[in-house]
């Protein structure tokens, strides 16, 4: 029994695999592993027509006519004469021009991503080449994928792009794709704008953040906000956050949903506290009329964008601002000329009596205006040379002991109607007198048993705003006080200070100090300065080592009126002196002429008619000259031009005497001289009327 062996199998390989590209070379190989001496034959499309003999069948520069099914087998002369047929392989020839596509599109914004795809229907075994701007340039990149991505495009990435593929050795290149153009425009940039110039805010202050996007109206965009990188719910163009943090925004264009670039962060800090205005401390709150003082205001912890307003306390009125500070209420009236920019300074120059009072300040900024809390109050006391009124202390001293009575009133030159007492103490009260004080007739207030809360500054003020000098009253809980003058002491006057003890005996030995420096020690508890000068002005106190120490008292020394004569007064004074001298000369001349007449009469000299006429003309001329001088003096010293007299002004003649005619012991006053001359003249006139005829006088003279 005979058995038959299986025929050898022909194996077909192809390189490259289909699809292949027009013009590409395709290599087909047929291999039979067993035996030798095979003749290889190639067939196409199941037709028994041999298309090629040989183990390698090369298709050069293929075209679509080469499309088809290819297979092979082996034949030989010896047995077995034929192999098994190989499997079929398909050769598919297609166009070699790839198609280049873009995703998401041609119009891009900076920061967008774009993917270029080179579509050939096959990608394995290929190397892809990507070109920009020109096909002859080197490729910008080559890879083994049919796609090329630019993750974040820049404007410089814009331009014309091509692709092609290649494989084999030598490399076969496909055709170039058609060009595609990428247009990259600058992405709209979002910017967070803080509407204020400051980044630190206070409780209740409005914060405004606005998202601005370049290239477009605000209505063209939708908005997204982020705080510290976390998205917020607000979608508006402008938001008003109330939390501290770093804020960013971006927009989404409504027409194509393109997003803007996210903005840079803007940091803000929002305090939980309300802004507090603070008044700068003054080195001196007691001023003399004519001094200058500058008040300063700032906001604690903030310096940017503030405008400042200044207020002065005023009697209670419903339309005024009412504030509380340390349980004390104040009615505040805006000082009209006090609006100030950064720095918040308010200068009073020259200081006047009307500036006496308690000042506060407040800052504001933004629109609508955000206001700080009012500052602490700052008292300012101004003493004048000739105030229209004065505070009368019926104890005559500015320091008293607790539980002693205290009575104050307003002493006014002229009509006291409309004047009232004002105070800055621990006592409240908006009525005529402080709380717990008794209101008396006129502008007087009193309390039977004073306490330390009655310490403070008191002054008188009229309805029209005129003010007296302020008086600082101390109600002391200790056992020693200093008795000092209530009002300013005039230069040259005597100043007496006394150190008083609460218990008997009240006079105690004491050390007296001015501005912290020991002046003298007195066993009687009394210190006297015979003639005070400006150098004696200062803060005084007294001390007994065993009994205790008094509070401090400010002693003000004012200049005499003689140092304040203006040019108008000077002219009047000069004219007055000239008139006085003229009167003296006229009187002396008249006495001389009378004595001369008597002397001539005694010599039996009878004046001729011509002499009498000349004498009368001379007297008439003198009188006319005196009259002209008087009229000239009257014109030269007119009130309107040289000395506008006002109520309570110092009489010019009271000023003349000490400045130009100081009376000294034993000296003769010029006015006494004038009076004596006039008296002598009257006596002479009486004697002249009683004279006897000339001959009789001559006889008597003889």
From TrEMBL:
<feature type="domain" description="Ig-like">
    <location>
        <begin position="8"/>
        <end position="92"/>
    </location>
</feature>
<feature type="domain" description="Ig-like">
    <location>
        <begin position="478"/>
        <end position="543"/>
    </location>
</feature>
<dbReference type="GO" id="GO:0009897">
    <property type="term" value="C:external side of plasma membrane"/>
</dbReference>
<dbReference type="InterPro" id="IPR007110">
    <property type="entry name" value="Ig-like_dom"/>
</dbReference>
<dbReference type="InterPro" id="IPR050488">
    <property type="entry name" value="Ig_Fc_receptor"/>
</dbReference>
<dbReference type="GO" id="GO:0004888">
    <property type="term" value="F:transmembrane signaling receptor activity"/>
</dbReference>
<keyword id="KW-1133">Transmembrane helix</keyword>
<protein>
    <submittedName>
        <fullName>Basement membrane-specific heparan sulfate proteoglycan core protein-like isoform X1</fullName>
    </submittedName>
</protein>
<feature type="domain" description="Ig-like">
    <location>
        <begin position="204"/>
        <end position="267"/>
    </location>
</feature>
<feature type="domain" description="Ig-like">
    <location>
        <begin position="98"/>
        <end position="185"/>
    </location>
</feature>
<feature type="domain" description="Ig-like">
    <location>
        <begin position="387"/>
        <end position="474"/>
    </location>
</feature>
<keyword id="KW-0812">Transmembrane</keyword>
<dbReference type="GO" id="GO:0006955">
    <property type="term" value="P:immune response"/>
</dbReference>
<dbReference type="GO" id="GO:0007166">
    <property type="term" value="P:cell surface receptor signaling pathway"/>
</dbReference>
<feature type="transmembrane region" description="Helical">
    <location>
        <begin position="570"/>
        <end position="592"/>
    </location>
</feature>
<keyword id="KW-1015">Disulfide bond</keyword>
<keyword id="KW-0732">Signal</keyword>
<feature type="compositionally biased region" description="Acidic residues">
    <location>
        <begin position="681"/>
        <end position="692"/>
    </location>
</feature>
<feature type="domain" description="Ig-like">
    <location>
        <begin position="273"/>
        <end position="375"/>
    </location>
</feature>
<dbReference type="InterPro" id="IPR003598">
    <property type="entry name" value="Ig_sub2"/>
</dbReference>
<feature type="region of interest" description="Disordered">
    <location>
        <begin position="611"/>
        <end position="647"/>
    </location>
</feature>
<keyword id="KW-0472">Membrane</keyword>
<dbReference type="InterPro" id="IPR003599">
    <property type="entry name" value="Ig_sub"/>
</dbReference>
<dbReference type="Pfam" id="PF13927">
    <property type="entry name" value="Ig_3"/>
</dbReference>
<feature type="region of interest" description="Disordered">
    <location>
        <begin position="671"/>
        <end position="702"/>
    </location>
</feature>
<dbReference type="Pfam" id="PF13895">
    <property type="entry name" value="Ig_2"/>
</dbReference>
<feature type="compositionally biased region" description="Low complexity">
    <location>
        <begin position="611"/>
        <end position="632"/>
    </location>
</feature>
């Amino acid at each position: 029994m005979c058995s038959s062996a299986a025929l050898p199998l022909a194996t077909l390989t192809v390189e490259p695999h289909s699809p292949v590209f027009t013009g590409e070379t395709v290599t087909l190989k047929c291999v039979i592993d067993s035996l030798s001496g095979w003749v290889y034959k190639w067939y196409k499309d199941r037709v028994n027509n041999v298309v090629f003999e040989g183990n390698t069948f090369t298709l050069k520069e293929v075209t679509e006519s080469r499309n088809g099914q290819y297979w092979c087998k082996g034949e030989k002369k010896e047995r077995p004469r034929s192999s098994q047929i190989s499997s079929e392989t398909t050769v598919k020839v297609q166009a070699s021009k790839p198609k280049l596509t873009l995703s998401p599109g041609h119009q891009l914004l900076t920061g967008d991503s774009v993917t270029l795809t080179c579509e050939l229907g096959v990608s394995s075994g290929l190397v892809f080449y990507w070109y920009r701007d020109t096909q002859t340039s080197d490729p910008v990149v080559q890879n083994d994928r049919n796609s090329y991505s630019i993750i974040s495009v820049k404007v410089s990435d814009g331009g014309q792009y091509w692709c092609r593929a290649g494989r084999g050795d030598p490399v076969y290149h496909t055709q170039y794709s058609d060009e595609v153009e990428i247009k990259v425009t600058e992405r709209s940039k979002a910017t967070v704008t803080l509407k204020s110039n400051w980044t630190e805010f206070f409780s209740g202050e409005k914060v405004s953040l606005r998202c601005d996007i370049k290239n477009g109206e605000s209505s063209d965009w939708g908005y997204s906000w982020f705080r510290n990188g976390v998205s917020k719910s607000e979608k508006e163009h402008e938001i008003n956050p109330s939390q501290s943090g770093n804020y960013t925004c971006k927009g989404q264009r409504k027409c194509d949903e393109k997003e803007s670039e996210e903005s840079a962060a803007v940091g803000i800090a929002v305090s939980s506290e309300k802004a507090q205005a603070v008044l700068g401390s003054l080195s001196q709150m007691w001023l003399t009329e004519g001094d200058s003082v500058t008040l300063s205001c700032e906001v604690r912890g903030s310096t940017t964008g503030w405008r400042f307003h200044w207020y002065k306390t005023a009697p209670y009125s419903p339309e005024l601002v009412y504030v509380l500070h340390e349980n004390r209420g104040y009615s505040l009236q805006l000082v009209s000329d006090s609006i100030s920019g950064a720095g918040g300074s308010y200068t009073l120059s020259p200081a006047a009596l009307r500036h006496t009072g308690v000042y506060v300040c407040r800052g504001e900024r933004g629109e609508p205006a955000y206001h700080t809390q009012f500052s602490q109050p700052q008292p300012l006391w101004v003493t004048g040379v000739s105030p229209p009124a004065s505070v009368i202390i019926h104890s005559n001293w500015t320091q008293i002991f607790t539980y002693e009575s205290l009575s104050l009133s307003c002493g006014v030159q002229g009509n006291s109607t409309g004047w009232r007492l004002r105070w800055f103490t621990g006592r409240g009260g908006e009525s005529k007198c402080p709380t717990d004080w008794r209101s008396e007739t006129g502008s007087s207030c009193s309390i039977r048993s004073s306490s330390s809360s009655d310490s403070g500054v008191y002054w008188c003020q009229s309805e029209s705003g005129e003010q007296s000098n302020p008086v600082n009253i101390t109600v002391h809980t200790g056992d020693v006080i200093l008795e000092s003058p209530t009002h300013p002491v005039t230069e040259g006057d005597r100043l007496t200070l006394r150190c008083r003890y609460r218990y008997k005996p009240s006079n105690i030995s004491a050390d007296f100090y001015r501005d912290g420096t020991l002046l003298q020690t007195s066993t009687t508890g009394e210190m006297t300065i015979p003639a005070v000068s400006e150098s004696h002005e200062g803060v005084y106190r007294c001390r007994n080592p065993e009994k205790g120490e008094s509070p401090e008292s400010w002693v003000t020394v004012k200049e005499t009126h003689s140092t304040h004569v203006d040019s108008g007064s000077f002219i009047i004074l000069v004219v007055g002196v000239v008139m006085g001298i003229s009167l003296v000369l006229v009187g002396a001349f008249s006495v001389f002429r009378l004595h001369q007449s008597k002397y001539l009469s005694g010599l039996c000299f009878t004046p001729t008619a011509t002499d009498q006429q000349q004498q009368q003309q001379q007297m008439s001329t003198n009188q006319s000259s005196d009259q002209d001088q008087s009229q000239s003096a009257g014109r030269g010293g007119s009130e309107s031009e040289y000395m506008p007299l006002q109520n309570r002004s110092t009489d010019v003649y009271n000023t003349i005497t000490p400045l130009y005619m100081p009376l000294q012991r034993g000296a003769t006053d010029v006015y006494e001289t004038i009076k004596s001359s006039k008296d002598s003249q009257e006596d002479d006139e009486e004697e002249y009327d009683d004279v006897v005829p000339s001959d009789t006088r001559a006889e008597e003279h003889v």
